[in-house]
Known about the structure:
The chain is an all-alpha fold. It has one domain. The chain has five helices and no strands. The two termini are 18 Å apart.
Amino acid sequence: MRTRVYREQHCMLRTLLENIPAAAESLDEAVVRPSLVRFAGVVRAHLRLEDEYLYPALFRHDDPSVRHVARRLRDTWGGLAETFEALYARWMEPGAIVGRAAEFLEEWTAFASALRARIEEEDTALFDLLDRLHEEQSADAR
């Protein structure tokens, strides 16, 4: 299984995460809301792709180590799509952030930290394993 597309999406998500201000004093709803809209499109597509297609395929993978890592990651990080949807619904209402920047940032920071951790763990624990197995299978086929 190739991981290039997922890794590219992870890079894009990391970049988009940086576009959301991390300090209440720099929080401008006119900037944050469009950034969240852009982020939502990418994160929704990415999490749907992983949660509905990648992980179910990995749960059926021939290698037990892949199945184990996939289940551990899914058990740890599987609820991020729902977490994001709740955050998005709450803060995308016009004026929702105004006067409540600290509350928004607390919720956003928790989500962003969890997403970064999922991305990091997928890249290092899961995708590195898949890439190594793919390389071994390619070498065996020669």
